[in-house]
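At this stage, I put together one protein's amino acid sequence and its backbone structure tokens, which the following lines show:
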Amino acid sequence: MKTLFLIAIAAGFAGAQTRNVGPVPKYEVKRAKGRIAINGLLDDEAWRHATPAVEFVFPWDNQTGAKQKTRAKLLWDSEYLYVGYECDDEDIVAVFGQRDDPTYRDDAVEIFIHPGPKYKLYWGFEMNAKAIMYDYISVPGVVHLTDSDVPGSMLATTIRGTLNQRGDKDQGWTLELAIPWRAFRDFSGTPLPPKAGDVWRANLNRWDGVEPNRRLSQWSDSALNTPNPHNPERFGELLFVE
């Protein structure tokens, strides 16, 4: 039985923006040309034909963590939405190792997905450098459904360095994710899989570093005054194309 947890989220669909920012970004999600093996390498031919990667921005100057680059690409086919991240990282730290642990406290990346306008909710997928996922459905400011593990999702990472070895110098890590379209069937309110020309809303985020030297970066600036990624009104646009 699914369990509902009441939460307080700083921003929702009617959340107030506290900074003036530009329009939300847009990304063309191309249909994958060929099979993708989820191995954390992003080495399949299909990735080379993806729309060039987006680079994350650093909206908050009151954080003390290093500004390390993050790049992300997306693809789709009839079964999955694919997401790939490449993270520069000189000190890779991830300690949580069980499904639905608070992976966002580690070196982690996220994707928040809002499929259509019918329901004011979004899916959250938060994954650390150890390929551990915390996934949920969120109605901002109302409920947080954490007992909603997505069956059939695939996730892998590769580490360029030594995980949890403080004091040495790492290079970075890569994460590859495949989300089955059936993950969205209960509350999407839109045909699945999407068709070319459909537009979904999403944001991609990265939590980097160890407290107190920690930083949040994003694809689309959430426009909130404090470091917080949860503002669906500022999700960017994903345009599905052939």
About this structure: The radius of gyration is 17 Å. The chain has one helix and 14 strands. The helical segments are 45-48. The longest strand covers residues 199-210.
